[in-house]
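Q: Is it fine to ask for two folds in a single conversation?
A: Yes, each is treated on its own. Send the first.
Q: Here.
A: Result:
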Amino acid sequence: MTAIALRRRAFAVPGWCRLLYLDYRRYRAQGRGRLETVFLTQGFWASTVYRVCRALIQAAPPGIAQTLAKTLAATLQKVMEILTGIAIPRTCDIGGGLYIPRFGGVILSHGPIGAHVTIEHCVTVGSLTKDGERGYPTIGDRVHIGAQSIIVGKITIGDDAVISPGSFVTRSVPPRAVVAGNPAKVISHEGSFELIVYDGMEDDPRRRAALAPSELQSRPHSPEPSSRP
């Protein structure tokens, strides 16, 4: 490894910092001020503690150092749960741009969550044991989860899906689907494109690819030229 490469590696921004910055930018993209986001937004506090604790444990060497790191992380996360009512286990793998606009009653499981996901208040994403196997939901990118929703079991919520407020979801949800009810059922395929806002979304190739079918359907069909003389 060259000296330049070593220097770049030494000054590289840690991955958890980049993810936390994306979380911060979600709040800013929604119109919140800098000071409001940092000092008055409980959802961002919970994201910060989650990112820091996860990075702390991953960086600690095995043995007593990692044991101490886990103890400190558990203490910090418990304090954050008491202050915000938001429980994010450090074992959960969450992409950048997590947005929790309101505090209280947010309980997440150990399953992965994609990038630029919005989770409203009073949401439970939990495990479910079926046929002796315990499973956790997998949440895709750019998913909007409405207030008072419950998502349980070994299921997948596809990219750009919307879980409407009060939904009880026990089956996988296709990409772009909007579900509602108890049990949740698909009511449309309009997706979360009008609900999820983040920096650079207009140029995001994955979002544009997912949005393409909607644009094609919305285009007016030009009449075919007549073959009559």
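Q: Second one now.
A: Result:
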Amino acid sequence: MKKFIVITMVIATLFTFASCSKDSASTASSTPAAASTGSTSASVSTAATVPTTTPSTGTVDSEYNPNTEVSFAMQTSEANRIVTIGTVDKSLYQAPIFVTSFGQSTDAAMLDTVMKRVGIEYKYSTNATADDIEGYKTIIIAVGASTKGLGAAGISEADETARAQKIMRKVKDNGIQVICCHIGGSGRRGNLSDVFADMVMAQCSYIILKEDANFDGKFTDYAKQHDLPISLIFATKDTVSVFTDLLK
């Protein structure tokens, strides 16, 4: 009887040990799989955050691809921040001065900041109508479309285009001097942005441009063909120097 009990206990012990060893092996084999899944998820997440648009994410149908290197000869540099091609007739730009934008981009706010630093009197409105510019002698227009800006203002592309067209008709009818400002750089290029730029350049007497937006020669070619002075700036902040020299 004692032998039977001892044999039974030995068998039970062996069975328990075998069961534990199996569970342990199963757990160990499942651990690497969990680590592998976590690694794959992190990789996918990282890949998803790689930027595919320019910092100016509001650009409409941007032709500028930050992942494609575009080589063109820049005339401006850290050492030579402003390059003016042609002769600017400063006497053309008289007060009162109106500042607005076509496209509802943040370039308008930057231009407003620039004018405050220049320290002149002017009227500023991003939603100006043709009637608002009545009586003004100079209008400075920041061109550059932003889907975010249009959405925030509750304005459709069609409505913004119509507003711009009405203002430009008023400009033509009243002989108002126009300065075209494209200071958002290469990220502020695109189909709608170019529509606004073309609209303003057709009636402007001076162009101010952050030069990296000229990667296809669009602005300098237009200025040359129409005998317009153009100031190329290296950075947006250089606009302050341009307007200080022009208006003070």
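Q: Anything structural to flag on that second result?
A: Two points. The two ends are 117 Å apart (CA to CA). The chain has two domains: 1-50, 82-247.
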